[in-house]
C-alpha cells in the first residue's frame, strides 16, 4: 500500500547490537557462571550504546544449548568433543533419559534435553529476562532446544511445564 509522504513523517531510530561470543563450557556449568558471562557481555554492550535510544541486542544461535551441562561438570569435564560430552551426559542421566526416551519415543539426545528442560528453561528465561530489565534493552536471546510452553500476556509460562513432550530449536524475545 502506498502511503502519502506526509503521513511518513515519523522516523524510528533504533540501535542494533549483535553479540559475538566464544562458547566456553566453563560458562555453562552453573547458572551463576552463565549469568556472570551474560552480564559481562551486556556490560560491554551497555558501554557502547546510547541509553536514550531503544536497543535490540541479538545473541548468537545456540547460546542456550550448552545449558544442558549445568550441574554436570564432574561427568563432562573430560569430554574432548560434543559427541563425547553428549554420550557422557546421557550416561549420567541414563535412567531419567531412558524414561523420556521410551515414553515419548525419542532419540537419546532429545530425551536428555527434555529430561533437563526445567533447569535449562529456568536459567535461560530468568537470566535473559533479568538482563533485558537491568539494561533497559530488548533481547533476542540465542536459541536453545526446549519443549514448547504456554504464553500468557507475552510471558512464557515455563513454570507450569511444557505443552508437549517434544523439543524444538527455539529463540525468545525479551524486553
Brief rundown of the structure:
The protein is α/β, with parallel strands linked by helices. It is built from six helices and eight strands; from the N terminus they run βαβαααααββββββ. Helix 1 runs parallel beside helix 6 and helix 4 packs across helix 5.
Strand order of the largest sheet: 1-2-3-8
Helix content: 40-55%
Total number of strands: 8
The H/E string reads EHEHHHHHEEEEEE
Structural class: alpha/beta
**Average of pLDDT:** 84
What is the helix tally? 6
Distance between the termini: 30 Å
Unreliable segments of 5+ consecutive residues: none
Structure write-up:
The protein is α/β, with parallel strands linked by helices. Helix content is 40%, strand content 13%. The chain has 6 helices and 8 strands, in the order βαβαααααββββββ. Strands 1-2-3-8 form a 4-stranded mixed beta sheet. A two-stranded antiparallel sheet has the order 4-7. It has a two-stranded antiparallel sheet with strand order 5-6. Strand 1, helix 1 (31-47) and strand 2 form a beta-alpha-beta unit. Helix 1 (31-47) runs parallel beside helix 6 (117-135). The mean pLDDT is 84.
Keywords:
175 residues, alpha/beta, two-stranded antiparallel ribbon, 6 helices, 40% helix
Secondary structure elements and pairings:
Layout: E1 15-18, H1 31-47, E2 55-58, H2 73-76, H3 82-92, H4 94-104, H5 108-115, H6 117-135, E3 138-140, E4 144-146, E5 151-152, E6 155-156, E7 168-170, E8 173-174
Parallel strand pairs: 1-2, 2-3
Antiparallel strand pairs: 3-8, 4-7, 5-6
Helix pairs in contact: 1-6, 4-5
